[in-house]
Write a structure and sequence with these properties.
4Fe-4S, 16% strand, metal ion binding, metal-binding, 18 helices, 610 residues, FAD/NAD(P)-binding domain, iron-sulfur, 4 iron, 4 sulfur cluster binding
Length: 610
Amino acid sequence: MTRSESIKDGLVQVMSSSHLQDNYDVIVVGTDPEGISAALSSARNGLKTLLVDGRNRDRLGGLMTIGWLNTIDMDRLPAKSSEKSPEILNKGIFLEWYSQIEGDSFDVITAANVFYQMIRNEPNLDLLMKVKSIDPLTGKGKDARPKVEGIKVVKENGEEAVISSPTVIDATQDGDIMAQAGVPYTYGREDLGDRESRMAVTAVFRLKHVTPEVWKQIQDRFNKNDNPETGDNEESAWGFIDFNDYQPINQRRVKMRGLKISRQKNDKVLINGMQIFHIDGADPGKRAEAFQIARSEVPHVLQYLKEHYPEFKNVEPDGIAPELYVRETRHMQGEYRLSILDILENKDQWDRVAFGSCPVDIQHLHAEDSAAVACSPRQYAIPFRSLVPIQMNGLLVVGRAASYHSLAHGSARVIPVGMAEGQSAGAAAKIAKEQNITFHELSASREMIDKLHELLQRQGMDLKPFKHPSSPFMKHRQYEGLKVAVSLGLADGGCSNNFHLDETSNPFRMAQLVKRAGFIQKEGWKQDPMTALQNIEKPEETALTLDQAAYTITQALGIPSTLKQARTELEKAGILSNESEDTILNKEKMTIGDMYMLLKDLKNGIETRY
């Protein structure tokens, strides 16, 4: 049996390095895939590197291997012809690892062992696992900005160690190091005026006794189903739309969506489908609460499976993932914050370090909420500036805590993007050291970014510039209104980018739009815009007029007016422009695009007044 085969048969024990230095060229905190990629990159670039983790893990890979999120959201560029496969956008270290596992869905033990083997192959790389605490050391940099200068750790045995380094890369899921160092950040949907709501977290659970015969029965079920939302292959199956009818025992805190089932070795499968609400993923106490909820719910989910799907009659529970799938916590404030409009418009960046193409997935916030896909890009770039925190030197942040707007994070949070960022961060540390510059100086210099691109290209990444044709909706006469609606999270185009701009609207929909905008804007909103519907018998079946739309806004802002006076009052207040009115083709039968133009004027007017 070969060494690689023996590795894949069972989990290889991860060992910390026996001797640690007091000083490293680079310290990477976090053993999720992004951190592994960053550590490999810096080590391969000749920098003495320490990879350290403080989450009591027994393996590498974090979310993928301990959270059991074992299906990768791949960033691919559609093939130019039917004879070619879609192109994987993020190559380099991500593709090196991906080529050694089973595919888009993989065995978590295989993945963990491949990560560890890659780490063990690097002589410049030390590994320190299971530390009890990690704190950043800060001082003053050469440009008077504060600077991260290393870390202080308490090891598993209780021993304290101070380890210095000119570069620390924060690859923790929640941006723990950047937050402790004092870097500004927003939390959850705070940038949309909502700091309290949280995307659902997921507890993946495992079932056993799913034999090849059982898997064949699962595939047969899907082969008889022509629903485009379901599908299967040899490693995974997705759909089970009937699960939307499952009634949780904890209906306020749990919701089951269509299941995603992934095969593991030894006749086991992982089930991704349980969403748990009102959990702050950065709070250990709340994470423990989520696990308790999951442990109570799983037996009932399994009973439902057995009652509705005969192929599951002999399966049994086999545990819950040791870590939760937490989608969102902190969003760093960086030199550039990736926006939803960057994604909507397939925007390239001059300092690109990774590419994204996944749909913008906005998951449920509570059990009564519905998930949405804001838009589906073809390709966009992540700039190096999104890894560089404002007001702090010596630190880079990679992964889902990087500098993304909360909506953009719905696409950019995926693993291939984070691993490309990690590889770029490791290479940037080499450039900064060789040129004796800070990351802020690097991020502002086209010459230095060119050097970074040349280095990464030689090391397997493909960071060529790109330009795609404008999407049809960008040519619509009311695109400026759509941009505002999308940026506020008030318009969803789905996977087909159909925003229904020319679809007829109604008074109820207008009132809902203004009400939702008030949750975000807050300043200026005086009362519920639904009061504008009081004299309309069937507001969902009535055509929306410009007078009614304007009246809805005056009611929300507390501007005294009648239905006929509303337009004039908004014009006087600077909240309705001639330019927007001119785009409205039928003022007695307004469209969704018309509404978005009024939303644009409303936003601009409120910002001017307040």
